[in-house]
């Protein structure tokens, strides 16, 4: 019995050690995408480079806003891409609105390896780029999907922006992991936290939360909790939508919200 218990604890320890060592491979699966995303920009967009604080040059898709329009800085999900984000989020933009669709370090041929700190630097590089185009903070909307909501909520603290859009947001990455793997010590294991629940109340501007009612990856209860932490936020549940099929339901909600944004 003693040997069995010892073997059990050793096995559990090895599994936890493996999970700790490989966690970023699991958190950021989109790094397997190649650089072909940049060969032909979406209609109306150009490929631009973002300069990070740690001297990386990251490619992104950019379309300048016209006079009177807003500029959306959008961060994609962990297995997603800037190109895919542009393919559906662009449909929510008004005719005068512009957008910057960011691709993280290590994604789509970009240099570097992703981490929470790295993605924070990527986001700041995106904001610097947009500001250098002469866009005032009051004309900028920050947005993100899934893990991109953790990036967006952090960047939203860096200025007085027009608004913040969070689609399929989680309260924190450990909270989301605990919903999927309740038997693991996620708060101790995870190095990257993306703690939106500690930031949303401090974000400037208006806030829009959209979540699929049938989301099996990040339960809608996460956005419900964020809405309680930010009582003036607009929270919309998309009935019948899950995590990766939320686009059709989210688009008209985003379009209406952006069109009525002061």
UniProtKB/TrEMBL annotation:
GO terms for molecular function: hydrolase activity. It comes from the Bacteria. The keyword Hydrolase applies. Transmembrane segments: none annotated. It holds the Pfam family Abhydrolase_6. The keyword Lipid metabolism does not apply. Residues 72-186, 197-246 form the AB hydrolase-1 domain. Keywords: Hydrolase. This is Alpha/beta hydrolase. It comes from Sphingomicrobium clamense. The lineage of its organism: Bacteria, Pseudomonadati, Pseudomonadota, Alphaproteobacteria, Sphingomonadales.
């Amino acid at each position: 019995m003693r040997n069995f218990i010892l073997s059990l604890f050793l096995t559990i320890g090895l599994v936890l050690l493996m999970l700790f060592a490989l966690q970023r491979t699991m958190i950021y699966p989109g790094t397997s995408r190649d650089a072909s995303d940049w060969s032909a920009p979406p209609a109306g967009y150009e490929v631009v480079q973002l300069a990070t604080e740690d001297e990386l040059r990251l490619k992104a898709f950019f379309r300048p806003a016209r006079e009177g329009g807003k500029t959306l800085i959008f961060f994609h999900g962990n297995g997603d891409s800037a190109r895919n984000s542009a393919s559906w989020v662009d449909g929510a933009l008004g005719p005068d609105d512009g957008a910057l669709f960011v691709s993280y370090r290590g994604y789509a041929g970009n240099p570097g390896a992703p981490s929470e700190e790295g993605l924070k630097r990527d986001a700041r590089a995106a904001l610097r780029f947009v500001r250098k185009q002469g866009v005032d903070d009051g004309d900028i909307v920050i947005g993100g999907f899934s893990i991109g909501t953790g990036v967006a909520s952090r960047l939203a603290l860096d200025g007085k922006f027009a608004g913040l859009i969070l689609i399929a947001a989680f309260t924190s990455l450990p909270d989301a992991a605990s919903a999927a793997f309740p038997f693991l010590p996620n708060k101790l294991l995870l190095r990257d936290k993306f703690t939106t629940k500690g930031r949303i109340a401090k974000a400037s501007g208006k806030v829009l939360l959209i979540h699929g009612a049938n989301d099996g990856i990040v339960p809608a209860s996460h956005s419900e909790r964020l809405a309680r932490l930010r009582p003036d936020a607009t929270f919309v549940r998309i009935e019948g939508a899950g995590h990766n099929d939320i686009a059709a339901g989210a688009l008209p909600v985003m379009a209406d919200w952006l069109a009525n944004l002061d």
